[in-house]
Amino acid sequence: MNEVARPQAPWALRLVPPFPTIAQRVLSVVSQDDTSLREVYEIVKMDPSFSADLLRFANSALFGVRHEVNSVAQAITMVGLDRVKTIATYVAMNTMIRSAVSMAALRKVWIHSQATAIIAEEAARLNGVPREPAYTGGLLHNLGTLGLMSAYPAEYSRMLEVSDEFGFDLLGIERDLFDIDHCLAGCYLAQDWNFPDELAAAIAGHHDPPVAGDVSLDNLIRVAWRLADTLGYAAFSPEKDWAYEELIAFLPNSKSWLGESAEAARTELDARLSSAGM
To answer: Which DSSP helix (H) or strand (E) runs through 217?
Structure first.
């Protein structure tokens, strides 16, 4: 497992909204070896808003549940603890940015993150590696961007406009303005919120070049977010214009909607994101 040295607490992240307490409790309990479904339910039911969101997203095509789920208890039983962890992370992030998601720039980042999560999960499934970490890694790869934009919406949005207009290096201009780029900002937040080191490492290195044939979490995320960009879900101007076929070739196995064609992949993503109200 990769480990990343914890960076010094940056000033730019002091105004980032806290990770919801209810989600932290769920993730902590689910991560324990002897956790029961009942224990998770007892925590979730204490927060009606979180419960409603969990149930809504559990029923959406976003998570691929095939039968209608009518209660939180049923959702937890049906999808299993690993899936509950994934959905809880999604609900928590959605709750964190809800007040600012009406901003066009933040909304683009959030949709890009969801598209990346779906692609990463499908790539993991096809290649026989755990799906839940891949989905979560895809969802949170731009955690630093979401954090900085939530804390400084006007400043970050303006920075993106200037960066796109003049072709500035995004990570460089972030470091100039905030003393930290979104890769390390996301790594810091992941560690601060007690996410696994493997996830923090994937977030920190997601801008590194992808490697052919590598199905590690790090590499799946590197390929997945670039595929999301290529399929029309870019959050900001890409560092390089990749061809869809070029990116798919990095994955050892892509025999599904993911590798059939760019059009098939885009259709699947559109349908699943639409089910979540995106």
So the answer is: helix 217-228
- pTM for the model stands at 0.87
Q: What is the pLDDT of residues 66-109, one digit of tens each?
A: 667 788 888 888 777 887 888 888 888 887 777 666 678 888 88
Instruction: Specify whether domain 101-278 bears CATH 3.30.420.10.
Output: no
CB 87 within 8 A of CB 44: no
In 3D space, the residue among 141, 245, 225 whose CA is nearest the CA of residue 185 turns out to be 141
Helix axes 170-178, 153-166, angle to 10 degrees: 140
Q: Number of helices (H) and strands (E), helices first, in the chain? A: 15, 0
Kindly state the tokens that stand for 171: 């990570």
Instruction: Read off the DSSP letter of residue 236.
Output: S
Domain borders along the chain are 18-98, 101-278
